[in-house]
Amino acid sequence: MGARSLRGKAVVAGIGETPYYKHGHSPDSEFKLALKAILAAANDAGINPKDIDGFASYSNDRNDPSRLAAALGTRELRFSNMQWGGGGGGGAAAIGNAAAAVATGLADCVVVFRALAQGQFARFGQGQPVKTISGDMAMQAPYGLMSPAQRYAMKCMRFMHDYDVKHEAMRAVSMASYQHAQANQRAVMYGRPLSEDDYDASRWIVEPWRLFDCCQENDGAAAIIILPADRAKDIPHKPSFILGAAGGSDHRCAAPSHNHPNYASANFSSVAPRLYEMAGVTASDVDVLQSYENFTGGVMMSIVEHGFCKPEEVNEFFKPETFYAPNGALPLNTSGGNLAECYMHGLELQIEAVRQLRGTSTSQVKDPDISMVIAGPMVTPVSNCIFGSEATI
Amino acid sequence: MSVGYLPEGLPIPVPENDNLSKPYWDGLMQERLMVQRCKSCNTWIWGPEWICHACHSFDLEWQEIEGLGQIYSWERPWHPVHSALKGHGPYLIVLVELPYAGNIRMIGNLLGRPEQEVTIGAKVKIAFEHHKDADPPHTLAQWKLI
């Protein structure tokens, strides 16, 4: 591996979460949620929160690192980082940014965090109450195209057309998330199992997506502490090394008015190969996958673009059994993910990927070494990352 | 009563404060479909931009094109995400590819029954939907099957 790689140069030291709530139900303010998650992650890592010297987030998180550093009594702030654009597509990129910071000496201890309190602030899935609109959204909102689901449904519809994909393929993604949430008491959908009939009977949100194809919206916060790899020996857990991270999107992905040339896509066509190259693994090496579900169709295209099956094989590959831990061919979203654990904007998926390597998931895969995360399909930029056990270093 | 396919009250399109897309919106009000084309290398540009993505020329012109295309993709929203759409029911959005302008794509509603079956590849033509009494007045580019 050349010098210009993150492979094995940073390690996850701690993970932390607040309880997860339905949107609008957090008893705490968003900033307080962020603080609680960061303290939980520091405690899990066995470090003093005042030793955190860097903050990395995404999707314009509202909790400014300077305020966090002041509130936490941070001794010295050295890294204040925001992945620009892409909403939840920045989740894995934020891990990569933090890893890059500690690998290069910009900082010694970086926390990746995300906090959401949608009672305090606006929800994602509603159009904004404005009188006039300009720019790219002027080509969309007057036609009733406003929400994220509406923004991406036509990409999925075209993909389904091109490869004759059946709705059952997307249903399998939803089934996997709900199945795994039933084992996870932290999950908002714990105790609320989903049957295929429930899925089929659910209302359309925007065709081709039904209610259970769409993520929840939630309140809560999550945090992950990243240290340079030479500190792995100090960590009170089995270490999870960052083997690689990538972020971006392919040629003219954001061309306005849906003019992205590679339209029927989750936008990983260039990002997936770069991740595998840095991590030195292929799809067949991946033991367990967390793949961001804004909408199930995005997971479907992500899995194809990461080489787990060919687009022509989707109907065959996308069966619930494929995705169920521990014995499925590709255990998927093993905490319940955005659909059924919590829409913590995908940071909960990163935490679950680490839990799998520690052996502490509620839907544990047997002795995994390669744990992968895909963040925010269909947006731009998207990102992904791979964590590896000590055996992979 | 709405003059349009969708109820009144959705956001009204206006040009940006740098007027980048003003020729497009002005054109629609005159029932002309205007898009950008690079004068240096003839690349069609959509949506509006200040530079040609192929050759980096800033010398772009607005050209009128035929409002003829084919459905590249579509969706049928049911869940209302805006107060103006509450209780309205489903509607159709199409992404239309314009073969006479470098296969650029435009978004609009597909006129007719919202429950109709939609076929990717179906030929469509533009329908200018005038909102003359709106504030500000404007015209939307809608699509109907040929």
Describe this structure in words.
The complex is a heterodimer of chains A (393) and B (146). With 393 residues, chain A is of the alpha+beta class. Chain A has 12 helices and 13 strands. In chain A, strands 1, 2, 3, 4, 5, 9, 10, 11, 12 and 13 form a 10-stranded mixed β-sheet that branches. A two-stranded antiparallel ribbon of chain A has the order 7-8. In chain A, helix 5 packs across helix 8. In chain A, 63% of the residues are buried. Chain B folds into 2 domains: 52 residues, no CATH class; 80 residues, OB fold (Dihydrolipoamide Acetyltransferase, E2P) (Beta Barrel), CATH 2.40.50. Chain B is 5% helix and 38% strand. Chains A and B meet through strand 6, helix 4 and strand 7 of A and strand 1, strand 5 and strand 7 of B. Strand 7 of chain A pairs antiparallel with strand 5 of chain B, so a sheet runs across the interface.
Structural descriptors:
heterodimer, A: alpha+beta, Peroxisomal Thiolase, Chain A, domain 1, ten-stranded mixed sheet, two-stranded antiparallel sheet, globular, B: 146 residues, mainly beta, 2 domains, five-stranded antiparallel sheet, three-stranded antiparallel sheet, 1 helix
Task: Provide a concise account of the structure shown.
With 393 residues, chain A is α+β, with helices and mostly antiparallel strands. Chain A has 12 helices and 13 strands.
Radius of gyration of chain B: 16 Å
Unreliable stretches covering 5 or more consecutive residues of chain A: none
**What's the main sheet of chain A like?**
10 strands, mixed
Oligomer: heterodimer
Q: Which architecture of chain A would the CATH scheme give at its second level?
A: 3-Layer(aba) Sandwich
Question: How many strand segments of chain B?
Answer: 9
Poorly predicted spans of chain B: none
Q: Please name the CATH topology of chain A.
A: Peroxisomal Thiolase, Chain A, domain 1
CATH architecture of the largest domain in chain B: Beta Barrel
Mean pLDDT over all positions of chain A? 96
> So how many helices of chain A?
12
Terminal CA distance of chain B reads: 27 Å
Rg measurement of chain A, Å:
20 Å
CATH superfamily of chain A: Thiolase/Chalcone synthase
